Amino acid sequence: MFDHTITALAGLAIVAAASQWLAWRLRLPVILLLLGVGILAGPFSGLLQPDALFGGLLPPLLSLAVAIVLFEGSLSFRLNDLTGLGGTVFRLVSLGALLNGLAITAATHLLLGLPWLLAALFGAIALVSGNSELLPLLRRARPGTRLGTLLRQEAALLAPLATLIAVLLHAWLMAGDQRDPLLAFASALLAGGTLGIAGAYLLALLLRHHLLPSHLVNITTLALVLGNFTLASALEQEAGLLTVIVMGMALANMKDLPLRENVDFRESLSAVILSLLFLVVAARLEPSHLAAPGAEVLLLLGIILLLARPLAVLIATLGSTLNWRERLLAGWIAPRGIMATAAAALLTPQLLGHQLTDAEPLLPLVLLLVLASLLLQHLTAYPLGRLLGVAEAAPRGVLIIGAHGFARAIARALEAQGVRAVLADTDWEDIQQARMDGLTTYLGHPVSEQADRSLDLIGIGHLLAMSHRPALNALTCQRYRSEFGADHVYSLLTAEEKRITGKSAIGQQYAATRLFGGELTLPQLSGMLGRGGTITILTPEQAKQRDRLIALFVLTAHGTLRIITTSGDTALQGGDQLIALLPSAEEQLPLRADSAVTSTIPT
């Protein structure tokens, strides 16, 4: 007889993959679909019973899965990413988080009758807002580059810090009457911090000195994370989660560490683990947890979402450069999701196992908060931003595939004119040079699960596929056509595409509109720039006086960006600005017809 366990596991994998795909198509956080499917398959219908399926292996498997999720989330804790808004971010993470956490703790204790320490644990978990949920919401809300950057930096710093506090509070609760709570607190902090830092430095040593072949980097990283978690948990039960969080935070802030080798591990494995984890967590809920929430719970959610966070942000941002409209929208946007759910899913059963029955509502409360915050904010963030006059009507920034010299020159010229540019590449040296130039970068494959969750597209409305690889250009154009629209996706001709024909050529159905007329290739343009050419901003009058230029972009008087593809794109009006490549005087260049500039200037 065929083993039904195999059928159940295969079904879980299929449902997880389908949920990931559907979330991508609908541009929704995948956790929404995973929790919904898990509830339907578990307590609602009884089709999925994780405890019966996995037996005694389920608790350790959940523990290891949560450890990987929290390690990955902690890798976003990068202090070097703080910009000129660093002071405001610090106040949000310190004063704002403190006020918000105290308000949630007090409301939870008074409304639900939970003990103060348990209410504080819920308050800490309720602060966790990760970039995995925030980035899709920011793409939908379009709050502008400055506000979007502020919210991303706050989430990246606050998520691991709040999770650390939650784990330490959990250690205090688990001590009970058998140990001194302060001693348990200190022991967990010491063991977790020491092993976390040691694990980070060991991995950094292996990577920096190239002691591992590339095909073993991913599995070694995973082994170190799980080994550190297990060792710390053996010393102090709560130290395991502290270890993986500290390890991720330490790795994220080490200079010149080639973490790009970990991309495959974080993209493929974490996607599978995330999917299975949240399906199982939702399926383990009791039917009583699905009852309509009472008035006290609804009031608590209202206080958390409508009062505590907005008021804390308004107070913490007093005296900042943000105007009152931006401060209101910042107080509204704080989606909870993956890290909060993972922490609650592991900590709650441990509390219940120690006969702390008051902790039973903790996981359902966190799941309800996650669902409410995601649904409410995805529905209202953009309309609220438009009402406040903060949301961008049409993003004009560009995502550039490739970080080579010509791409960096394009990005610098656009940034100088206030147009946001993001360079995405897998080449560490090119990305490092772009970062030294002060440009925004993404190190990793632009078509990946990790890019969907981490690539910051706030203010981005165009794709410029400019890598040396035609297949990558075609793939990114296909991927981002649904993101930006077919008329906002462009590719630059490469030398290989100009040379190859027939069955080796990429099909026309996958091609995008060619940049800059489609005749000059990337090597030709890069060569012009390297031989003394310059990318310059010209007024219509200045452009008419030039007979040797390559037109690249037009910044209209209305503030929009027009990307040059044909000669018809180069018509200029009063107030427009032309971004053009001016070849050196010695350049032997037969100019194309589409590089000419015509001006229509009102008299």
How is the topology of this model organized?
Blueprint: H1 4-26, H2 30-44, H3 50-54, H4 58-74, H5 86-112, H6 116-126, H7 131-141, H8 145-175, H9 181-208, H10 214-235, H11 239-252, H12 263-283, H13 295-316, H14 324-332, H15 338-353, H16 362-388, E1 397-401, H17 405-416, E2 421-425, H18 428-436, E3 440-443, H19 449-454, E4 460-465, H20 470-484, E5 489-491, H21 495-499, E6 513-514, H22 522-530, E7 534-538, H23 540-544, E8 550-555, E9 561-563, E10 577-582
Parallel strand pairs: 1-2, 1-4, 2-3, 4-5, 5-6
Antiparallel strand pairs: 7-10, 8-9, 8-10
Helix pairs in contact: 1-2, 1-12, 2-12, 4-10, 4-11, 4-12, 4-15, 5-6, 5-8, 5-13, 6-8, 7-8, 7-16, 8-9, 8-11, 8-15, 9-10, 9-11, 10-11, 12-15, 13-14, 14-16, 15-16
Structure description:
- By secondary structure, the chain is of the alpha/beta class.
- 60% of the residues lie in helices and 7% in strands.
- The chain is built from 23 helices and ten strands.
- α21 links the parallel β5 and β6.
- The C terminus is likely disordered.
